[in-house]
């Protein structure tokens, strides 16, 4: 079962695009040595080089209403039929056109229907989209207050029941899709088993769409069904692109042989992420980037991650010469201010004169959350540029050292208002060789000790030349102890005159790398282990869209792609020290493939403990144990209720400056959980907690009253018989809170005693949490859902 996530904290990505035609982990491989990102994706990169189009020419084609095979009234009627809850909703507007994305998609024949719904004098609005050519529902999202929020645990529908319901709805909502045109994804990242423990039960399903009988890597249909069987969300792609014939000119055997003969792995330091934060590092074997390139099914040639024919030569890595002008850390001994950070940026880059400082914020860095960075934006706020995506430049600067981590001349790549910069007076256009020297000079100025820790990745040929000769790009790989590091390094792009237009430098915390273990398995053994996991599969790949340099007209190609035989394996790498497979991207709730805890069977709280493991609230240790009778701390309690409320309680690690909350400092392991609790008013921010202290039963009762927003009511229960009947009631200080917990069935006594000073175990808290789950819908408060506005 999936449960609704009630709070999500997110910060916009550093580089924004108005529309990404394809979102793929492979696109990240330009920043990574060896292609781990490619290993974790079944699609090609969005950063294709050929056939670049001028963004300014991407005007939407005006749709012709006479060509619509589904009328406006029919589209409205179909939506009401699919969602009976809309019977009392009012249509506030209808528009025939695209899906409001930029650049406009190929399908401009879409009915965009705006709805309004009034409850108690408050008006709510949302929209739905229906294809005007085939009548398929394209997109909608319906939630509170349009649906009753009573789909609590235990749900009326099991996951299997909900899947059947989803398939029936798809057949009705998208008649152009036959039963053989959809394929349920078996990837746990796409179909997570445990959303959140608290909240309405929801089941999320993702289906690959088949074209001409083949899967299309970028075409995924998503649907959400709640525990009562209501459809909450539906999204079906409508790209309006042509798909080539599904008949390949190259045989599968030929493609498989080409893949097998060219497969290679390399040894890297690889970060292991948990909830978007680096949890640890492993020394691991992973495929080289070229090894995971798709093969064009018509030509038999390998295609790089940009859709171009791949070079037959491997990528080489060159030392970075030390330049005369090198990065020097700020020597003030204190944090620089926003003006100083902006000055450092403008000493290196040329920001258009009409763009003025617009926003500045000091927040947590990423991926190194120990750092504080200035996030700065320069915008042209003139009346002629007040667009959804205004012309804007963006930078991130380390507040302690002044090192620049990010710079984008165009923060919003899809902005229609962007004009090319004029050529600098007296400047000449650079050759590819001159641009390479300029890149070396720039990286020396921008990156600390660049010559000692970076190497230039030479892709050969004209890889470094941008489309239509508009500039150049260069990639630098980060090394640590002589070994390349994944998810780090530098990617920069400059215009034809050598002016920096895009710069990205990941700077993680290397202090947690534990020495340099001796590999337990050889390179040849690693190669064979990977080969056993991968197979070439015929599919469609979408290539094109926006990257941080240019827009490429989207197109679909028929390819053979090397994919893991088991989708669950696509984000795993081989730990060279242990020979075991390690998942490098893990999120709370991703427990579909996790083995059951080994020490729960026969325990009195086995059922409750098992549910908490299922939803990621409790996580087995390396030996598969939960240790159910282990006592917990005050901080553990907040971690449990935060995780039970949303698998994303930690949010995006890039955020505002962190300050002490409820006496808990930012460096505490419990800080994010306590902050989440304070933001949801489960505790006061002025409270002074002792998160590392063991949690007693009486303390738990007090925290339960606060969590349920019943602290004031509990005062009236001081003399309640629920607490006075305990033989040890005299030793209970917070009698009202204990009485409340007992009256609600959350806690109970043992042999006539409450045992207020007894410490709470994992088993004990599991029982309480499941009692809270069952209490949902029976009390005035929405358990785990209140958030400070």
Write up this protein.
Among the domains are: 55-235, no CATH class; 338-512, no CATH class; 597-775, no CATH class. The two termini are 28 Å apart. It is built from 16 helices and 28 strands. It has 789 residues and is an alpha+beta fold. The strands form four sheets. Strands 14, 15, 16, 17, 18, 19, 20, 21, 22 and 23 form a ten-stranded antiparallel beta sheet that branches. Strands 1, 2, 3, 4, 5, 6, 7, 8 and 9 form a nine-stranded antiparallel beta sheet that branches. A five-stranded mixed beta sheet has the order 27-26-11-10-28, with helices on one face. Strand 10 and strand 11 form a beta hairpin. Mean pLDDT is 85; it is low at 1-58.
Class per helix and strand makeup: alpha+beta
Shape: globular
What is the mean pLDDT?
85
Q: What's the Cα radius of gyration?
A: 28 Å
Which features does this protein show?
789 residues, alpha+beta, ten-stranded antiparallel sheet, nine-stranded antiparallel sheet, 16 helices, 28 strands, 19% helix, disordered N terminus, SLH_dom, YcdB/YcdC_rep_domain
